[in-house]
Specification:
alpha+beta
Length: about 270
């Protein structure tokens, strides 16, 4: 019996229609290894868009999908049992014409997060960050944001970091995740979130130029020029030869003078 549901998970919006229920009760989990078959119904097969091989049995690892569509497939797989078939559509996106069917042939569960060693959690986080970085470079911001956020969740699951041999690597990765998330948020003008995440990164690495620079860009978006200037002055003191920092600082100073001039005119008019 067909059953339709609309799903909104993170940045992903899709319509899932259950075509065949399959057998069993166990569902694949994050990083489970799955054998699947994808049939693209319309338009014609576009593997580069989907991110997984189509019209053939293929092995995938849930969580490592590198495109919008493969991320949705990963999410759908976590609701399926062996033998089940679902149809996926993307009605509210640029992929509105795309329709495909996914069959879960078989899968092997991965270790649950709470059972993972700190090094295993770190390894998963690094793999997710790598996928996110590739997505960001190809301007697939939604996928990049999702992968960086999931990488951060694995890092934050690591307890007693200070006692571990890999403490420095873990803290560096945590800082990078906050900065990478802020880079995605800048592209969507989420300025308050950018300042929050840059501040978190700077609490880990107080000398991080990217943290000061991105926070300054967000503060400019919030019309907080004085704070932006302070951050850019700090960034410039850390990297005097950074031309991007110097140019933005000069622009902020010009904006502040203009703002002061307009304020002075307004005050003058009040007394005339």
């Amino acid at each position: 019996m067909e059953k339709k549901q609309l799903s909104n998970i993170g940045p992903f919006h899709y319509e899932l229609l259950i075509i065949s229920q399959g057998n069993g009760k166990t569902l694949p989990n994050d990083f489970a290894s799955c054998r699947i078959f994808i049939c693209v119904q319309k338009p014609e097969s576009r593997p580069s868009l989907i991110g997984y091989d189509v019209d053939t049995e293929t092995d995938v690892t849930i969580g490592l999908g590198s495109t919008y569509v493969s991320c949705v497939i990963d999410l759908a797989l976590q609701t399926m049992v062996e033998g089940s078939i679902v149809s996926l559509k993307f009605p509210d996106s640029k992929l509105s014409e795309l329709s495909l069917e996914v069959r879960l042939i078989s899968f092997s569960l991965s270790e649950e997060v709470y059972r993972l060693s700190p090094d295993a959690k770190l390894t998963r986080a690094l793999r997710l960050k790598e996928v996110g970085t590739k997505a960001f470079r190809t301007k697939d911001t939604e996928v990049a944001f999702y992968k960086f956020s999931r990488a951060l969740k694995y890092v934050l699951c690591i307890r007693n970091v200070g006692e571990l041999p890999s403490a420095s690597e873990i803290e560096t990765l945590r800082c990078q995740c906050y900065l990478n998330i802020s880079a995605c948020q800048l592209l969507t003008d989420s300025f308050v979130s950018v300042t929050d995440n840059c501040s978190r990164a700077l609490s880990i690495d107080p000398s991080n130029v990217k943290g000061f620079f991105r926070r300054a860009r967000a503060q400019i978006g919030l019309n907080e020029y004085e704070k932006a200037k302070d951050d850019l002055v700090k960034a410039q003191s850390l990297e005097p030869g950074n031309t991007a920092v110097s140019k933005l600082l000069a622009s902020v100073k010009v904006a502040m003078k203009k703002e002061d001039g307009e304020l002075a005119k307004s005050i003058s008019k009040m007394f005339h």
